[in-house]
Amino acid sequence: MKTTLLALVFALGVRGDDADVDYAQFVNPFIGSEGAIAGYAYGGGDIFVGGAVPFGMVKLGLDTYELPVNQSALNGGWTPQGRVTGISLMHESGTGGGPKYGFPSQMPLVTIDSPVNLLDNLTYWQKRVGQDSARVGYFKTRLESGITVELSASRHAGLHQYTYPSPSEKHILVDFSHYLPHPTRSWDSQFYTGGEIEVQPNSSTYTGYTSIANGWCLGPPVTVYVCGEFNSPPDQARAFKGKNTFPVGRHFRSFDNATTPEPTFTGTNARSGPVADRVGAIFSWNDTNNSTTIRSRVGISFMSVEKACAYKNEELSWSIEDTAAAARAEWNRDVFSKIRVDTSQKANKTRLALLYSSLYFMHLIPSERVGENPLWESDEPYWDDFYTMWDLFRNQVSLWHLIQPSYYESMIRSLIDMFKHEGFLPDGRSGNYNGLVQGGSNADNVLADAFVKGLRGAINWTEGYAAVKKNAEVLPFFDQNPVDPQGSLKEGRSALDDWIPLGYVSADRNSRAVSKTVEYSLNDFAVSQIAAGISPGDRDLYLQRSSGWQRSWDTSATARNFSGFVMPRFANGTFHKTYNITNCGDCNWSDESYEGTAFEYSFVIPHDIERMIELMGGTAHFEQRLDYVFQPNTSGVDLGVNGLGITTINNVANEPDFQTPYLYNYLNKQWKSVERSRQLATDFYFNASNGIPGNSDAGALNCWLVWQMLGLYPVVTTPVYLLESPWFDDINVTVNHDKTLRIRALGLDDGDARQGFYVQNVSINGQTWNRNWFEHEDVMVDGGEIIFGLGSEKRVWETGHVPPSPGHSVVDVGDS
Ligand SMILES: *[C@@H]1O[C@H](CO)[C@@H](O)[C@H](O)[C@H]1NC(C)=O
Ligand SMILES: *[C@@H]1O[C@H](CO)[C@@H](O)[C@H](O)[C@H]1NC(C)=O
Ligand SMILES: *[C@@H]1O[C@H](CO)[C@@H](O)[C@H](O)[C@H]1NC(C)=O
Ligand SMILES: *[C@@H]1O[C@H](CO)[C@@H](O)[C@H](O)[C@H]1NC(C)=O
Ligand SMILES: *[C@@H]1O[C@H](CO)[C@@H](O)[C@H](O)[C@H]1NC(C)=O
Ligand SMILES: *[C@@H]1O[C@H](CO)[C@@H](O)[C@H](O)[C@H]1NC(C)=O
Ligand SMILES: *[C@@H]1O[C@H](CO)[C@@H](O)[C@H](O)[C@H]1NC(C)=O
Ligand SMILES: *[C@@H]1O[C@H](CO)[C@@H](O)[C@H](O)[C@H]1NC(C)=O
Ligand SMILES: *[C@@H]1O[C@H](CO)[C@@H](O)[C@H](O)[C@H]1NC(C)=O
Ligand SMILES: *[C@@H]1O[C@H](CO)[C@@H](O)[C@H](O)[C@H]1NC(C)=O
Ligand SMILES: *[C@@H]1O[C@H](CO)[C@@H](O)[C@H](O)[C@H]1NC(C)=O
Ligand SMILES: *[C@@H]1O[C@H](CO)[C@@H](O)[C@H](O)[C@H]1NC(C)=O
Q1: Ligand 5 pocket test: which of 257, 259, 260 has the largest number of ligand atoms within 8 Å of its C-beta?
Q2: Cβ(658)–Cβ(643) below 8 Å
Q3: 812 and 768 share a domain?
Q4: Residues in domain Glycosyl hydrolase family 92 N-terminal (predicted)?
Q5: Ligand 2 centroid vs 382 CA: distance in angstroms?
């Protein structure tokens, strides 16, 4: 684009106006809060609902316990009908593994008389009355006790506002032994390992810490320092302790679980001591006659009580309105205004809700914890809650790269710093601990994607390369996770001892051989991409290893009249011939393929689609096979929570299949990619509580939808973007800090099921474009303009080269 100066002037002028647009009004913070069974969380998004800023360390929301447990999911804390057990500051969003966090908490009560037992949530938990309401940065509910709870948050602190009924007693329970439990199993449930609480002399302030261990990645105790304050001094403040009888974490349990313990009041402070006694405090106000609003500001820190207090004091006033307004302004400024579409009266409000809600949910985790690393001293930034790279690498990091370049650079520096101090990049990380690795070491893909698109800043790529090279070369220490006796789930690649000598992951020596082979292939391609710039002599080695999936390709494997699949292969070279290509069983840790069948994984070779097409018998056979996976009632698996309602082999609700609908671009039949992917988006995404088809996975599903609406799809680990078809006629995206990519869709006419969304022609920066893809430099560095001419004709408009296969190689699999 040569008219940069003019464009910049324009952009600045328009930005001034757009800064005032309140995009947050379009966000529906409940999308994904419910699953297919109305009124229950099961199979839904597992999203967080509450007050938070983008990537905030604090995500303040309800913790609930929903029954029956087989229709529940406590991961985000909030459930549609669960009883409130506490209100806590730390949460994940969208995660499908074991719950994590749900601490430190408060709980407002109108009585503490028997049968209420402060150590037994079942005696005081609360149903809610009416509908909860939530807006960006703000949450409100009413408990059956009559207490109205309003919540908002800053980056490291939360503001609780409790309005008590009149007349009523007024108490607030601070329970440092509260956390989100796993309702059905103990091995990866969190458990409490101790804490300490101290009520300050004026009784308005309490300080201390709580430590909660285990949970999803089986991490060590997470210690959080707490500093809470009430706006009106309580008349009574009593610390208490009690025996730890939680059924999980029995090594720390100080008593058997035969009796429910009662609290012992201990004055102004309570300490767990060596056997992890439970500690907390109860604050009471004597004015029972009048309706009273009590507010509480709570700061947290992983470093010290002093920091927790400083956050509370510096980040929060006592005004819930001001706090919510500040959070909302931050979301508008730093997230929503990065993608600007027409929001006037004539705009389609459903689409605005889908777009801005999707952006919201993809900015809740990871958690930005700069200055909050309790593990080592470093000048590098620190982040946590990468839950998980397996979800994020597919396309979410690529969108952060464009619209959050500062945060994204910070994340990458933090990942590399983890490698430097702990030895490995995380594939997942939460509670300051690496894990769980689902397949490959997918941080490799993340780093490569950033590297090839030119992200530099203060990232030390020498170290970045050393980090991915270690993943490629060094077998990680075996962490003895009970679900996988074969290798580490903590970090790295547990099957390198197969992968390096054999060139594939064998099915007899390793779990998840099919999916690991596919993932390791892309991982090594990613390593080769960084090697090309940092250590060119290594490039070919990793490029050669990235063809491992071909060594696991069984040309004679047949299913549904198609031949040739990535199959489980034994160390002796033979294939597992009776393996069921359309059914991976539980598709879990100990199976031969993880969360996807061999049928699906055979399409997941983004770096060498060219060879994949050859191995599937050439373009005609490939197209037939691709058509087939979108036909209803073809799936052979019960997808469970990873794809409720989906009956096709392609499971757009789960990450491995995210790119598959777009593969028609590689046949120069882009119109079919557009048709398929739009169909999937309109069939499975809605502005409704059950509006996403499964766990949102840290926002990965939401981000898939954002790309769909932009009319683009990034090919991860490469600088290539596929051209699809936008859902808005004019979109301005702020890329590379302050540049503008404008995407226009002339002739878009797709309302009320009309079909005017097929691409007729494309121009980029004023030039007619004959390829259905472009590269990062074309419009993402200096900005630029993509103009789609749309219409209802299913047109093969592209005459140029198909998208590249930069990892192309040919291993003889006996196919020719
Ligand atoms: C949960 O269990 C109840 C019986 O306790 C059953 O009626 C219900 O269908 C189950 N729900 C799911 C999602 O399996
Ligand atoms: C509440 O009590 C039940 C029963 O003791 C327990 O299973 C659960 O972990 C407790 N805590 C929460 C936050 O639900
Ligand atoms: C109570 O004491 C703390 C310091 O310990 C102080 O920060 C706070 O402002 C005091 N609150 C009131 C209401 O005096
Ligand atoms: C508040 O009530 C408690 C318990 O009844 C009593 O001990 C205390 O003196 C009261 N405080 C005030 C300021 O009235
Ligand atoms: C204590 O908890 C364990 C584990 O949940 C359970 O197996 C055992 O029956 C419980 N004991 C009693 C006395 O409730
Ligand atoms: C209750 O409110 C009334 C009217 O505002 C006031 O006169 C009274 O002092 C209040 N009572 C208490 C206990 O604060
Ligand atoms: C509440 O109101 C009753 C009746 O008016 C009065 O006797 C009592 O002292 C009041 N309590 C407080 C704490 O103000
Ligand atoms: C996008 O930016 C252009 C150029 O500044 C402006 O004319 C147009 O109105 C903007 N469109 C939207 C939807 O913001
Ligand atoms: C990058 O890291 C390497 C290895 O730790 C170090 O030698 C080098 O000085 C670093 N580069 C910069 C610019 O800090
Ligand atoms: C190869 O290994 C598999 C799995 O251990 C075994 O079932 C098969 O018999 C072996 N085949 C040959 C030819 O050794
Ligand atoms: C594979 O699983 C599908 C779905 O469960 C089943 O219908 C089919 O019979 C199985 N195929 C073989 C070869 O076992
Ligand atoms: C608005 O967008 C939704 C979602 O894409 C679509 O279903 C609906 O038809 C659109 N409405 C109009 C009037 O264009």
Answers
A1: 257
A2: no
A3: no
A4: 26-301
A5: 32
In a domain, 178, yes or no: yes
Strand ranges (DSSP E) for 128-175?
133-135, 138-142, 148-153, 157-163, 170-175
Give per-residue pLDDT as tens, 316-364.
999 999 999 999 999 999 999 999 999 999 999 999 999 999 999 999 9
Tell whether 751 and 815 lie within a shared domain. no
C-alpha of residue 84 to centroid of ligand 4, in Å: 28
Cα(333) to centroid of ligand 4, in Å? 47
User: Which atom of ligand 6 is found nearest the CA of 288?
Assistant: 13
CA–CA dist 330, 789 (Å, integer) = 35
Shared-domain flag, residues 770 and 651: no
Q: Is 636 in the pocket of ligand 11 (CB under 6 A)?
A: yes
Domain that holds residue 775: 723-791
Find the helix or strand (DSSP H, E) in which 210 lies. strand 205-214
Percent of the chain exceeding pLDDT 90 equals 91
Assigned domain for 639 exists: yes
| Beta carbons of 756 and 790 less than 8 angstroms apart | yes
Residue 752 pLDDT:
83
What residues does ligand 9 touch, defined as CB less than 6 Å away?
Answer: 460, 462-463
775 plus 811 within the same structural domain: no
432 contacts 374 by C-beta, under 8 angstroms: yes
Whether ligand 8 lies within 6 angstroms of the CB of 11 is answered as yes
Q: CB of 727 closer than 6 A to ligand 1? A: no
| Listed residue (732, 660, 645) closest to 692, CA to CA | 645
User: In sequence order, which residues have a C-beta less than 8 Å from that of residue 148 and are 6 or more positions away?
Assistant: 140, 141, 142, 162, 163
Would the CB of 732 count as within 6 Å of ligand 8? yes
CB of residue 40 inside a 6 A radius of ligand 1 = no
Asked if residue 207 and residue 108 are part of one domain, the reply reads yes
3-state secondary structure of 250: helix
Q: Has residue 285 been placed in a domain?
A: yes
Tens of pLDDT, residue by residue over 456-500, are 999 999 999 999 999 999 999 999 999 998 899 999 999 999 999
Rounded Cα distance, 449 and 13, in Å: 32
Task: Report CA(246)–ligand 5 centroid distance (Å).
Answer: 10
Q: Whose CA is nearest to atom 6 of ligand 11?
A: 636
Determine whether the shortest distance from the Cβ of 122 to ligand 2 is under 6 A.
yes
Ligand 8 atom index nearest CA of 342: 13
Task: Give the mutation target among 289, 290, 291, 292 for probing the ligand 7 site: most ligand atoms within 8 A of CB.
Answer: 289
Distance CA(597)–CA(430), nearest Å, equals: 28
- Residue 60: CATH number of its domain: 2.70.98.10
Residue 742's CATH number? 3.30.2080.10
Ligand 7 contacts CB of residue 286 (under 6 A): yes
442 belongs to a structural domain: no
Question: Which amino acid is present at 431?
Answer: G
Angle between helices 443-452 and 461-473 (to 10 degrees): 140
Q: At 756, which helix (H) or strand (E)?
A: none
Token pair for 596:
């996807």
**How many A from CA of 64 to the centre of ligand 2?**
9
CATH number of the domain bearing residue 595: 1.20.1610.10
Best CA proximity match to 37, nearest among 65, 73, 64: 73
Does residue 649 sit in the same domain as residue 739? no
Q: What is the pLDDT of residue 652?
A: 93
- Same structural domain for residues 153 and 88? yes
Whether the CA torsion 248, 252, 258, 259 is positive or negative: it is negative
